[in-house]
């Protein structure tokens, strides 16, 4: 008979075991699954938050990269503009210096031409004065003596030789 007891089902024990099972399931659900689910939810929220922050950081980095590239492009354009302006200014200054040098050269040429003209007039006036003094000298000699044709030719040749000198 003992073997029979092992296999028989006692209704009160069965009901208590079922109740015990429900109580265990309830307690496991309340004290084990609920905190584990809360921890898992917190971890999921934390992971979502980190992913969201990483995406925001990536977007911010992308916008900074775009700004950097724009500012770099602007800097290159500004540098090219500065170089272009400097070249234009240098060319302008060079042209101005060339024009000033040409004007000064023209002025020097004009002064030289005026000096040459003045020296020419001075030489002509000196020659006239010398010719006048020679003419006076000849006239004085003519007055002193009456000149024959041969003397007259000699005086003219002397006059021409002195004027030529």
Structural category is mainly alpha
Q: Can you write the helix and strand succession as a string?
A: HHH
Count of DSSP-assigned helices: 3
Please give the number of β-strands: 0
Low-confidence parts: none
Shape: rod-shaped
Total discrete domains: 1
Q: Could you estimate the helical fraction of the residues in percent? A: over 70%
Distance between the termini: 180 Å
Largest sheet: none
Backbone CA Rg: 64 Å
Mean pLDDT equals: 85
Approximate strand percentage: under 5%
Note down, in words, how this protein is organized.
The protein is an all-alpha fold. The chain has one domain (13-164). 95% of the residues lie in helices and 0% in strands. It is built from 3 helices and no strands. The radius of gyration is 64 Å and the shape is rod-shaped. It starts with a helix and ends with a helix. The mean pLDDT is 85.
């Amino acid at each position: 008979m003992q073997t029979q007891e092992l296999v028989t089902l006692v209704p009160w024990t069965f009901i208590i075991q079922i109740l015990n099972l429900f109580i265990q399931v309830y307690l496991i659900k309340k004290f084990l699954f609920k905190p584990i689910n809360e921890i898992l939810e917190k971890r999921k929220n934390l992971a979502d938050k980190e992913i969201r922050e990483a995406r925001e950081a990536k977007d911010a980095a992308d916008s900074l990269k775009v700004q950097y590239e724009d500012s770099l492009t602007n800097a290159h354009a500004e540098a090219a503009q500065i170089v272009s302006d400097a070249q234009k200014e240098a060319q302008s200054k060079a042209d101005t210096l060339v024009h000033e040098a040409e004007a000064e050269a023209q002025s020097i040429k004009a002064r030289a031409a005026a000096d040459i003209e003045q020296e020419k007039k001075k030489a002509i006036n000196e020659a006239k004065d010398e010719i006048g003094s020679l003419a006076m000298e000849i006239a004085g000699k003519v007055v002193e003596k009456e000149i024959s044709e041969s003397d007259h030719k000699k005086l003219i040749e002397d006059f021409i030789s002195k004027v030529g000198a």
